[in-house]
Amino acid sequence: QGFTKTDVTIPMDDGVGIAATYYAPAGGEPPGGWPAVLMLHGLGEDRADDTNAVGMSINSIAERYLVPQGYAALTFDARGHGASGGRVGVDGPREIADVRALFQWLDAQPGVNGRRIGGYSYGGGALWGAAVAGVPFAALEIATAWTDLYSALMPQDLAKSGVVLGFYQSIAQRVEPEVDQVLQLALRGADLGRIRAFTRARSSRSQLSRLSTPTFLMQGRRDFAFDLEQALAARRLLRGPKRLYISGFGHAPSAKPGGELDHVLPRARAWFDRFLKGMPNGIDTGPGVELAPDPWTGSTASFAGLPATRMLRLAYPGRRTIARAGKVVRTRPLPRARQETFGAPLVRVSLASGNGWNQVVAVLSALTPQRREIVVSAGGARTRLARRPRTIAIRLLNQVTAIPPRSRLRLTVAATSTAQSPGNLLYLTSIVP
Length: 433
Known about the structure:
Shape: globular
Helix content: 10-25%
Low-confidence stretches: none
Oligomer: single chain
Number of helices: 9
Strand content: 25-35%
Largest sheet: 10 strands, mixed
């Protein structure tokens, strides 16, 4: 059906104006009022940005998939983004207060049913934070987000410096001073206690076991910023109805297949139809996990729970001395059939150092018969090495990576991910003395 679209500026209690767009369906409202959705964009974006991890702006999603189907919607530029005022605190307490105020504004609009307001977000940190803080969403849909910011950006106490710097560059002109300070600490690996306190205030995982709001989770198969574990943790903890869609879109190195949106966004609307309109459409009673193929073919796989897996163990024997800019590379054959990873690989390596080497990065890559090299996963860890060898366990990112038949698996061990390839920008900086 038709709708009206109105740009507004909504004042917050500290005087900052939040630029927003309010959509209302045309015609008379249904009994009880319109269901509504509050929609959030991702970090460094705005409500009209279609260059994000999904490839479609929240305005476009509202206009194509929600409002014509009888939903009111409010999209907005987060504080410090787009046309809004203020500075970016990276989904901290101030941003959570903004979400609460915008929810209340939407609730107050004529014809809106305040008990049927859902939340949709690419900027899941703020939406998760608002939900666990008690903002009464009737349903949630969260895409390519984090639940624990420290484990996402500093796994094993080592900053994913390429990811951190990439996000920072998108907000650098308008950040709160605290963000600058924490960034410098993270890149130096200093004052981890302060970094943990900063990220704890922006994380929801420790409180998700108390949340019963129906939640549709969307997380990328291949996302080096926020890996699959961020959504799997939420799936384990949430008490209410939940569904997990593992997609081809996400942050780099995701392929972001455009055709997939025409498959998943109607499913996302069906989730709102079920829990905001009360339609018994079966979206909450079917298989709880859906996995998109790579490459996208239009046909997904569904599972009652997480798909069954088997453990593959490979040994890479040998010794080598690595200089600061050097690396160790070992390659082994894989089973000849097509493989697909699911879960976080674990690399154990024996290391010794006489000069205080204090970080190590491991990259797993697949060498295909066509001479392509596909990064399967990567990870890093802070170390405290001495001359006596010590075994270091490096947990890599949880990725769903398709490996073509007859490929070989390569392990690269170094101080940065760029040692594997100059284009691998996950761990850019070395804090090795």
